[in-house]
């Protein structure tokens, strides 16, 4: 009996099938059950302690500027956090193939060790180079070891519930750490000089749990022990992930290359990767600048505008779960296309908003519709991957496009806008146009699949 681990043959002539499938050795996809749901539970902690740790850098930047690294500039300090986020995406190119080769638990163990060890060494750091080595490089590489496995493993345990379970995994990050795909604004502050000119209490918050822990404990226990407690929390959660998570798809008998270069011969993979890059160029501009806009344009007080980002993240929780639930019935591409278009329309609508009620509504709605763009890509990669044994490799490759989009988006927007003079419109148009471009590219991918026989759920 053929295994469900490989999808039915596609009419895409460019897709390269595994030359030696071994259906008899691959267990049937459970699509539920205790073991499958434990993977979602464990994946939540992997995201929590990859993006969650990185999103904590906002409070560290504030402390470093005031105390430990006070002789360094804000831009120099923020490179520590920027390096963390960039390495998380970059390491995915390697961790994806390693995942596919069956070394899933080694990745979790290595990532857990590097994250915890990096934070412990950070607690002992006294100079800039020590902090950037420990918190920037060790934690960044460790987070990269955890990130791709956290989304790839869920895709191998579910079929009809795949989008919903992936959405719940991503929403767990929103509940716990604000947004698993959002680098903290302080981390990104090197992108724009206008942002660095704001006072500390005007800068939007990064995460939720870890920053609160550090802020509450640092005055009482000191920097070193507050950081160690964050590390011990991460250690406890990652031990749970290591205990409950299991690889379902057996590794291939023959070693595969680190990159699946055949993917670049497929129009579907190239189109999706381009759409992901374009969408992520514009996707996070509202997350980054809405609180600043609230202070400068709608005259919200600093303490009030501070909460616009949590409202946006709250909307993102629903935006990761509900579209995933519908995507399992209607198709992930059928859901991401309209959500991307509506997200772009909302950013265009931002051009006409100059009052507080409108900005609150915009924040909630944009959080919802942007959430689908974040949570659905892993299931689309699974949809266009002929062999599920390559799912980790292809996720790592496609997420790299998203990473570079995220990396260049805010620098370009920062060069266009002028915070001091309250000129946001040019950057708003840029973000909206990039979102439109991403949505059009996703729609083109849907058309490609339509022409090749997938006329229904896709």
Describe the 3D structure.
This protein is mainly α and 458 residues long. The protein has one domain: MFS general substrate transporter like domains (Growth Hormone, Chain: A), CATH 1.20.1250.20. It is 69% helix and 0% strand. The protein has 19 helices and no strands. Helix 4 packs antiparallel against helix 18, helix 12 runs antiparallel to helix 16 and helix 14 runs antiparallel to helix 15. The chain is globular and about 60 Å long. The N terminus is likely disordered.
Describe the structure using short key phrases.
0% strand, Growth Hormone, Chain: A, 458 residues, single chain, 69% helix, mainly alpha, globular
Describe the structure concisely.
The protein has 458 residues and is mainly α.
Structural class of the helices, strands and pairings? mainly alpha
The fraction of residues assigned to DSSP E strands is under 5%
**Sheet of most strands:** none
The number of domains: 1
Distance between the termini: 25 Å
The stretches of 5 or more residues where confidence is low (pLDDT under 50) are 1-24, 172-207
CATH architecture: Up-down Bundle
The SSE string, one letter per element, is HHHHHHHHHHHHHHHHHHH
Organism: Ramalina farinacea
Pfam family, one: MFS_1
GO cellular component, one term: membrane
InterPro entries: MFS, MFS_dom, MFS_trans_sf, Proton-linked_MCT
